[in-house]
Specification:
There is one protein chain. The chain has 8 helices and 11 strands. With 228 residues, it is α+β, with helices and mostly antiparallel strands. It has 2 domains: 4-21 and 109-204, Probable tRNA modification gtpase trme, domain 1 (Gyrase A, domain 2), CATH 3.30.1360.120; 23-108, Alpha-Beta Plaits (2-Layer Sandwich), CATH 3.30.70.1400. It is globular. It has a 6-stranded mixed beta sheet with strand order 8-9-10-7-1-11. Strands 3-4-5-2-6 form a 5-stranded antiparallel beta sheet, covered by helices on one side. It has helices at residues 4-12, 32-37, 83-95, 121-128, 134-139, 177-186, 194-204, 219-222; strands spanning 15-18, 22-28, 51-58, 64-72, 77-82, 103-106, 111-117, 145-150, 153-160, 167-173, 190-191.
Length: 228
Amino acid sequence: MVSDAAYQSARRHAARVDRSDRGRLVVTGPDRASYLQGLLTNDIVALNAGQGCYAAYLTPQGRMIADLFVYELGDLMLLSTPLAAKDAVLAKLEQFIFTEDVKLGDVTGSFAQIAVVGPDAAAALARVLEGAPDAVLNGLREHGNMRARFAGQPVIVTRVTDAGEPGFDVYVETAHAAALGSALTATGVAALDRDTAEAIRIEAGVPRFGRDMDEDTIPLEAGIETRA
């Protein structure tokens, strides 16, 4: 059931979303960009540190294995993909490592992902993160990323729009996720329940893998061909 209070908080102030429905992979090694370039639909080799993109992973027939976000952090690439597709993505990626100097890792269990969305999202995060001032966060372009700290612990912040309301994803070690949620609540950031978050996504027309598109879909049918 959609919560009007949470909905208004996301639209007018800021709200947080538990992104436990996402899987998280890391790709390291000097060949990581060229390796992913041959497997994903977007221009991965064009990414510099602090940049990212939206992409699709397709079968040889052009149908979707998954959609995902790719973030170049300078020393590794972080991939965020639907949790239900994560194992298939990882298995397919591992299958195509031959002579490339790359390593894959699954950090879904060790890192949590929390979205903070809404017009005041940057200001809210600036109050709880170290090294992430409001102006810098607001200056991040779509899919941009940066490192910061929460209570002395390293976090990764990425600029996102797939929640339906612009904002940020914060990747934090799982052991510190509850503390981050509490800190955000203390600044007035409401927790967005799953139904309300889904309503906001649908209103924005953002397709979701597993619901609006699946393994039988081609990017053109999903309307993502210009972004991925």
